[in-house]
Every structure is written in structure tokens, then in C-alpha cells.
Amino acid sequence: MKRITYFIVVTLLLIGITSCNRNKNSFDATGAFEATEILVSSEVSGKIMALTIQEGDRLDAGQYIGYIDSTQLYLRKMQLLAGLKAVDMRKPDIRKQIAVLEQQISTARTEQQRMENLVKAKAGNQKQLDDITNQIKFLQKQLDAQYSTLNKTSGSTDAEAESIQYQVMQLDDQLQKSRITNPQTGTVLVKYAETGEVTAAGKPLYKIADMDLLYLRAYTTASQLTQLKQGQTVQVFTDYGENGHREYAGTITWISDKSEFTPKGIQTKDERANLVYAIKIAVKNDGYLKIGQYGEVVFNQE
Length: 302
Fold this sequence. Notes:
The protein is α+β, with helices and mostly antiparallel strands. Among the domains are: about 25-40 and about 210-300, Beta Barrel (Elongation Factor Tu (Ef-tu), domain 3), CATH 2.40.30.170; about 70-175. It has helices at about 1-25, 70-90, 95-120, 125-175, 220-225, and strands at about 30-35, 35-40, 45-50, 60, 65-70, 180, 185-190, 200, 205-210, 215-220, 235-240, 245-260, 275-285, 295-300. The strands form 3 sheets. The chain has a 6-stranded antiparallel β-barrel. A 4-stranded antiparallel beta sheet has the order 2-9-7-4, with no helix packed on it. A hairpin with a 5-residue loop joins strand 11 (about 235-240) and strand 12. The longest helix has about 50 residues, at about 125-175. It is elongated, with a radius of gyration of 42 Å. The model is unreliable at about 1-25 (pLDDT under 50).
């Protein structure tokens, strides 16, 4: 009876060891999960008046989350708008300023016509007609000169007003950038700044990543690479210790076209391989997957 019991125990141990060895080598590659992370930075300099986020918060794309002090920008805009009014007031009214000369020319032409009729009837003086004609020429030259001066003045004020308008547009853009708006839907990973701190353009405020879709970066050997293609469905497994493991469906979204030495800590089906190729596998997150977590891959042969 003791011999039978001993035989059964030994048999179970051998089965367990065989099972462990099979499970250990049942995967084709391993890797770590990563996400597309975005480092959100300030676009203007100033004091952070509000930044209503915390690490772990889920944000929507376009969500307003705070603003940076824009008082000086607003005051400068008001100053430019006042200057724009002043420029508009300096712009000459060409029609009104040439109206007197045009009236004088019109009166002179009427007098010229009347004098021509008198000369034809031999009741007028030719010299008087010539004087009127010369007067019209002189008035016309004055009108042309005033037209030129007024047009240049008007063009100068228009150019000055246009320049101010562009400056106002720049300030409007900076005022808009003073509002902190989240660029994409995701989860806040790290918060680098707090309300009340002074920031500068380009200084990081927080880091965000879309945790709904993670990517397992794994490594394969050259022999495995011939069996893989983009869009191929694979099986991904994660180990949760005593809680067992979870299985996910993954899709190969990227295959490196260059080989590299096997990263430290990465296992492949052929652990003797020195050169491997990186691949990325998209996996829909059910809430249990974390960035940096290890995963195992089994390639489905298609």
C-alpha cells in the first residue's frame, strides 16, 4: 500500500513539473504594455490661476481644465483697440476735402462755356477766356495733387490699422491659449504643476494617455517574423498571481523593419536568439491592464 501511494505521489509530481514546463514555453513572445502618452505643456507664460485636475482623472478631448493669468494680455489688447480708433479718426475724408476744389472747377467750367459763347458772338474778350482756361488747369492740378496726398495719407493709415489688427489677432490667439484645454480623451498619469505656480511657455503641466487601448510591445525572432503580418489577430495573456491569468484578443498594428539585440528581461520562444524584431499589439483594456505590466503572446496561425 505504501509503494502504491509513493508511486502516485511521484507520478503527480512529474505531471506537475511537465505541466509547468509546458506552460512556461507555451507562449511565443513576451513584452510590456505601453500607451500613447501626451505631455501637455503651457502655451503661454504666467501664473496658473486654476488647474482642476488630479492624477487618475479621466478627461475628454477639448475639456476646459483651467487657465493662466491673462490680465496683461487683455490690457494690451484694449490699448491696441484704442490705438485703432485713433488711427481711424486720423484717416482723411477725401470726398469732403476735395469738394471745394471740385466746386471751384465746376464754376470755372460754367464761366468758360459762357465766355466761349460770348467770344463766338464777338461780344466777349478772348483774354478773359484764356484766363479762365488757365485757371481751370491750375485748379485741376491742385485737385490732382490733393488727391495724391490724401490717397497716400489714407493708404498709410490703412496700413497702420491693418498692422494693429494683426497685433490684436495675435493677442486673441494668446488669450485663447491662456485657457488650458485637454487635447485628447484619456487618463491623467502625472501632474507636474499646481494652481498658484508660475509657468512658462513649453513647461509641462501634466501627462495624459488613452488607457482604453494599450499596446503590448513584444519581440519575435526572425523565424517567427515570417508567420506574422499587420492586422493579424493574436492571443494575449497576463498573469495575476494567485488570481490566475486573463486572456485578451490582440491585433498586430506594427512590425519593425529593423532587428535589434534582445532587450534585457525579455523572453522569446527561442531564448538563444540575439537579434529580434519589435512588434506592437493593440489590446482593448478592460480596466485591469496597466502601463508597464508584462504580457505573454500566442500567435494564431492564419
